[in-house]
Design a protein that fits this description.
By secondary structure, the chain is of the alpha/beta class. 35% of the residues lie in helices and 18% in strands. It is built from 42 helices and 44 strands. One of its GO terms (cellular component) is nucleus.
Length: 1285
């Protein structure tokens, strides 16, 4: 009971101390009041401080890459560490009764008020008594809290030790670190923290000032002192070591988070554009999905599209189905329904039964095949398409590849590979026109899988038996066909359309367009995809229509041909694009006697382009006098995913036309709908694209983030829910879910229904009367500084600035590139051949002004390229993604360019400022603490890459040479050329091995050498030097270290011989191996004038070698033993020697082999100095290790024949060559006046490696030099590789 009361009093006393300390911390009372009244800040207040993009900046006077509290915490940590070092261990004291009062001065902090010391003491004593009385009343609750705190003591102490907890225990421990309090209560469990109780007494955010060091030692307390715990409770010094460590841990200041040691300033120093506070915001209510008219049920609608073909093919066999036009625009062939049925039946039977065997057919139902048909042969395509449907094979229509480098051809190959396509259907004429190899085989297109080509002409098809009938069932969810789509980034995806969706879409089009049997339609579109396929190939069969297909090639020669077809055949419907309307207007003068009165629908399929309204109005004003009715113009909006999104129904004669929206382009850039009332130049007039398709439902969702429903005056992405859309991207599950399985949500994030929608990729809104308006596409969206711009709008602005004199056929491409964490607009146009440079720059300047005035956005780059130089789509348009790729690669080759970064890059980095407390050293420390390695690069692990027999069995090059001499004795490793380019000597594996053995035998007999002696090899470049390297290694009983030295020059002994002498002396060579000529030179009079010839070590002549084999090959005990010495002399005359062990030699040779892909059938050309460094390794060692053939070109031979190196590369068709900077400089400067001679030579694609890392400018100049003079053929490519060893 006594112990419990002492413990209780100790806790009460501790609480009183805390209350007193909170009341009298030695700071301003106003600050105390403010601290006590603090409440947690609301989320809205803390949000700006937590966001790095909205962090307040102090006017640029201080760089906020580093937060201000880092320096404060660093100072506190230093002070705390200083106090810990100076704190002495407390002295032991006696325990006294708990009720013996200690002096007030010994237990309270000093008072900072103006009162006297006695008054302050009495005041503090009174406060202490009051706190004690209040605490005694709440003793039971204190005990309960203490028990709860002790149960979680270990975790709490662990948390505090890592600096994550913000309790006041650690703070109070710092406060009482130098305070001596006389208290004699039983010490509680010091591992239990009372952060829960202390937090109620004082906020955790109160900071103790560094100056608040409490000194409460009583004058009469002599040497008695106590140790304070983390809770401020004094305890005796007779405590365990663990408790002492715990106390020190609790006193330690809070460690800053790891991320504060290292601040990634790449985004901090870039000025992030802040949103305009005056920007318009949507104000309408949340929209509700709009439903289309119900899809009617017609009694004679077939259960499947194949059933409709069977019906018309057997009952109306002579009715025309499709008419094809020739190049002049005249009908060349008409396909009847009977012919279509019979030929499709033959093709289906052939695909299933005649391509393979009965047990192993090539095609099975459900397989995918490619349809490769030209745009001027719709008849054969239609037969192939329906033949695949009857065979239950999934057709994938693609464009005809013209070359191996077609724009987007590799992405088409990726689609074919992902679909598992191995068979392609085409015509005989198309097959003959495909590019072929010299053997007559079709070339392997880049990125394409290997395909088997099947000709679908009738003479190659087998007639089906009478008892064979295709399986025509009710349309279900199985795939019918795959239509390819190119995304904004250039990737190609396959939109899979099910059979039920194909049928439902035909039914919806039949109801919306009010098709009836026997009508004639004119199709100017691509019949393999989009609306040209849906109307001209599918819906016409369902309704027994007659389609006249006008190919794109006819439109080039006769733009008015489709108008003539409408006039001649009294067509009811025409499918066109805005370009066809424009071209027809331009060619209208050629023929005036045409009538368009029969047209009830002129379907403009690119009505989604907001600028199509001008073409429609101009065409109507011109051809209204020819019978064209205003209500016949019917724009529509389509997409590969949602298929037909909306279409304007044909109006009644005399009925008022739908209204148009005149929108502010500034408002559109912020994603809101505002009627333009200010400047009409910045207004966008858009026409509606009609109502939602029958049986469909439409909503508008935000294009970014979650699919939240937009407000009624907000621009968003159009989403459609219907049975008529695509079902998935083939093989792309993740992208499919984000596009075809969209569930819209409201502003609260709750789903709106459970019906999935399909994203159409179109931007627009639903106007009055449920009319759909489209203002752009997702693929053409350019988001610059938070504002959205449409690429089509900028193209229209560029075309409006008198582009006829400058731009070739209106070909302009607009895209965006990322620069400094934001998108920048790039405009690329094709320049007319007759346009002058002055006119071009004048046009570019006016375009920049127009875009800035109308769109309020700057252009980063405006480039003009030569005519017909931009990559094209199959129908002649500009391939945007490929053009962007060329721009990023720097391969556009513009003839005029205007860069304007100052008008659009407004978030340039802020100037760096010197920090008072945290500098670059702290950033480097932060990198190290964060585990980041500074300025280090690592290659592949050699130990795990190559694990063949050669590496496992042979750890020494001599073993490798011996193995090659036995396995491939006649394989040529080295080929040495002279100045004329003719081989002067070759070295096979066996020859090199035998010569090395003979030289090693001479060393053993005449050299009288000891193990570990160094041998100098003084030879000109050649086979003898190669053999000597391995002879030194193969010497019996001992291991000799070779030192290759450049021989002295006979005409300049005074300058070259001292270098040889220096290497001999430094290496302490015991022997010199050389030729007879060089031996006489070393002992000549001329040499005696330079060096003392009598001090040469033993010189052995190796010209005449005895035919004596080595008794045994010495094998060192470990690969770490020394192999050779590598001496090199710098340009300043400094001699450097490197010791190379055999394991290092193996690793170096293996690295070069893997990096340069060296193997036995490869040839490389080496034009390097063979006496040190990389040149020595490539000349003497790599060929033995890798087995490739090295063509050796001594650099000194180039002095007499500058063509030697390049002609060798050309003659032997070398892919990789190694050279030095001096060789490149010699060829660049020496061959400058001999370009005409070099033009007749052909260089294969070449990779050249240089060993000099400081001559990058010379390397790049050499790389551009041949290309600028057209030395390389069209298939050649020069690639610069720099390896630094």
């Amino acid at each position: 009971m006594l112990c419990k009361s002492r413990w209780l009093c100790g806790l009460v006393f501790f609480k009183s101390l805390k209350e007193l300390w909170i009341r009298f911390p030695g700071v301003d009372p106003a600050l105390q009041k403010e601290s006590r009244n603090q409440t947690p800040a609301p989320a809205a207040t803390s949000a700006p401080s937590s966001s790095k993009y909205h962090r307040a900046r102090s006017g640029g006077a201080r760089d906020e890459r580093y937060r201000s509290d880092i320096h404060t915490e660093a100072v506190q940590a230093a002070l705390a560490k200083h106090k810990e070092q100076k704190m002495a261990l407390p002295m032991p004291t006696k325990r006294r009764s708990t009720f013996v009062q200690s002096p007030a001065d010994a237990c309270t902090p000093p008072d900072t008020s103006s009162a006297s010391e006695d008054e302050g003491s009495l005041r503090r004593q009174a406060a202490l008594s009051a706190a004690l009385h209040q605490s005694l009343q709440n003793a039971e609750s204190w005990i309960n809290r203490s028990i709860q705190g002790s149960s979680t003591s270990s975790s709490a102490s662990s948390t505090l030790s890592h600096g994550e907890g913000k309790g006041t225990s650690g703070t109070l421990a710092d406060v009482f670190a130098n305070t001596r309090i006389e208290n004699f209560s039983i010490p509680p469990d010091v591992t239990a923290t009372t952060s829960s109780s202390s937090s109620s007494a004082r906020p955790a955010t109160i900071d103790i000032p560094p100056s608040g060091i409490v000194k409460g030692t009583h004058k009469g307390s002599s040497r008695s002192s106590l140790m304070d715990t983390a809770d401020g409770v004094p305890v005796s010094s007779r405590v365990s070591t663990k408790i002492q460590q715990l106390l020190n841990t609790l006193k330690r200041p809070k460690r800053p988070p790891l991320k504060e040691f290292f601040v990634d300033d790449f985004e901090e120093i870039v000025e992030v554009p802040q949103p305009d506070p005056n920007q318009p915001k949507p104000e309408g209510r949340q929209m509700t999905p709009v439903k289309g008219e119900p899809l009617g049920v017609v009694c004679n609608w077939p259960p499947a599209l194949e059933a409709a073909l069977q019906r018309w093919g057997t009952t109306q066999a002579k009715c025309p189905c499709l008419t094809a036009l020739d190049v002049t625009g005249k009908p060349v062939y008409t396909l009847t329904y009977g012919k279509l049925w019979s030929r499709s039946l033959k093709l289906a039977y052939t695909l299933l039964n005649k391509l393979g065997t009965k047990n192993e057919p090539v095609l099975k139902p459900g397989d995918r095949v490619a349809l490769v048909f030209p745009n001027n042969d719709p008849v054969m395509f239609m037969v192939a398409f329906y033949g695949c449907l009857l065979a239950e094979v999934i057709p994938v229509p693609i464009e005809v590849p013209l070359t191996r480098k077609d724009a987007g051809g590799q992405q088409i190959g990726f689609l074919l590979g992902s679909c598992g396509i191995t068979l392609a259907l085409t015509t005989e004429v198309c097959l003959k026109g495909l590019p072929k190899t010299q053997n007559g085989e079709i070339v392997q297109f880049k990125g394409w899988p290997r395909l088997k080509w099947v000709v679908t002409d009738s003479k190659y098809l087998s007639k089906s038996p009478k008892d064979w009938q295709p399986n025509i069932s009710t349309a279900g969810t199985e795939p019918a066909y795959i239509e390819y789509k190119t995304s904004k980034e250039g990737s190609v995806m396959g939109v899979t359309v099910s059979r039920i969706a194909m049928l439902s879409h035909c039914q919806a089009l039949s109801q919306a367009c009010n098709y009836s049997e026997g009508e004639t339609i004119v199709n100017v579109l691509d019949f393999k995809k989009d609306a040209g396929l849906w109307h001209g190939m599918l819906t016409n069969v369902m309704n027994k229509l007659h389609t006249l297909s006008v190919p794109y090639s006819v439109m080039k020669t006769c733009p008015l041909s489709w108008v003539q077809r409408v006039h001649t055949h009294k067509a009811k419907v025409a499918l066109v694009k805005c370009r066809d309307l424009h071209w027809a207007m331009m060619a209208h003068r050629d023929q005036r006697d045409v009538s368009l009165s029969s047209l009830r629908m002129l379907i403009v399929t690119d009505g989604a382009n907001p600028w199509s309204v001008s073409s429609c109005d101009a065409f109507l004003s011109l051809f209204q006098s020819h019978g064209l009715k205003p209500e016949a113009i019917c724009p529509c909006a389509t997409s590969p995913e949602a298929m037909t999104v909306a279409i304007r129904r044909p109006g009644m004669p005399g009925a008022p036309l739908p209204g148009r929206a005149i929108l502010s382009m500034s408002g559109l850039s912020y994603g809101v709908i505002r009627v333009n009332t200010e400047d009409k130049n910045s207004a966008l007039t858009v026409q509606d694209v009609g109502h939602v398709m029958p049986g469909g439902m439409m909503c508008i969702v935000k294009p970014d983030g979650s699919p939240q429903l937009c407000k009624t005056d907000e621009i968003g992405e159009i989403c459609v829910s219907s049975r008529t859309g695509g079902m998935l991207y083939y093989g792309l599950t993740g992208v499919t879910k984000n596009t075809f399985e969209v569930i819209p949500v409201n502003s609260a994030g709750s789903p709106v229904g459970d019906v999935p929608f399909v994203r159409s990729g179109l931007l627009g809104f639903v106007g009055p009367g449920s009319l759909v308006f489209v203002v752009g596409k997702i693929d053409g969206l350019l988001t610059v500084s938070g504002r959205r711009h449409n690429a089509d709008d900028i193209v229209a602005t560029g075309l409006a600035v008198e582009s006829i004199k400058t731009v070739y056929r209106g070909r302009i491409a607009v895209f965006s590139v990322s620069v400094f964490y934001d998108e920048r607009i790039v405009v690329v146009a094709e320049q007319r051949p007759d346009a002058s440079e002055e006119d071009s720059f004048q046009w570019m300047s006016r375009v920049l002004q127009a875009i800035d005035s109308i769109h309020q956005v700057g252009v980063y780059c405006l480039a003009l390229v030569p005519a017909n130089s931009l990559p094209k789509t199959p129908l002649g348009g500009i391939h945007i993604s490929q053009t962007k790729q060329h721009f990023l690669e720097g391969s556009l080759h513009p003839c005029n360019i205007l860069m304007c970064p100052h008008t659009c890059v407004t978030n340039l980095p802020k100037p760096r400022q010197k920090q008072p407390g945290v500098g670059p050293a702290s950033v480097m420390v932060g990198n190290l603490v964060a585990g980041k390695r500074i300025a280090q690069a690592a290659g592949r692990d050699l130990g795990q890459i190559e694990d063949n027999d050669l590496v496992r069995k042979h750890q020494f090059l001599t073993e490798v040479l011996q193995w090659r001499a036995q396995a491939t004795p006649d394989h040529v490793l080295f080929l040495l050329l002279n100045a004329k380019g003719t081989p002067v000597c070759t070295a096979t594996c066996l020859q090199l091995h035998k010569r090395a053995e003979r030289i090693a035998s001479v060393l053993y007999d005449k050299g009288h050498l000891n193990a570990g002696d160094n041998v100098v090899l003084l030879y000109p470049p050649g086979k003898v030097m190669l053999a000597l390297i391995f002879a030194c290694i193969q010497a019996v009983v001992c291991w000799l270290h070779s030192v290759t030295v450049r021989p002295p020059h006979a005409q300049n002994l005074t300058a070259t011989l001292p270098t040889v002498r220096m290497i001999v002396d430094v290496s302490k060579a015991a022997c010199i191996l050389t030729t007879q000529t060089l031996m006489r030179l070393l002992k000549s009079r001329e040499a005696a004038a330079a060096v003392d010839v009598k001090t040469w070590p033993t010189i052995i002549d190796t010209d005449d070698l005895p035919r004596k084999r080595l008794p045994q090959i010495y094998k060192p005990p470990t690969p770490e033993m020394l192999a050779y010495l590598d001496f090199s002399v710098s340009t300043t005359g400094m001699l450097t020697g490197v010791k190379m062990s055999h394991s290092a030699v193996n690793a170096l040779c293996r690295a070069i082999k893997l990096q340069c892909e060296l193997y036995s059938s490869r040839q490389i050309a080496i034009c390097l100095d063979p006496y040190c460094g990389l040149g020595f390794t490539l000349w003497c060692l790599c060929s033995v290790y890798s087995g490739h053939q090295s063509i050796l070109i001594p650099p000194m031979e180039l002095e007499s024949n500058l063509f030697l190196w390049l002609s060798t590369v050309s003659q032997y068709k070398i892919r990789d060559t190694f050279c030095s900077y001096s060789v490149m400089e010699l060829c660049t400067k020496g061959l400058g006046n001999q370009i005409e001679v070099l033009k007749v030579r052909t260089f294969s694609p070449l990779n050249f490696c240089t060993t000099n890392s400081t001559k990058c400018s010379e390397i790049l100049y050499f790389a551009r030099y041949p290309q600028s003079h057209r030395l390389l053929c069209s298939s050649a490519k020069l690639v610069v590789l720099s390896i630094f060893l």
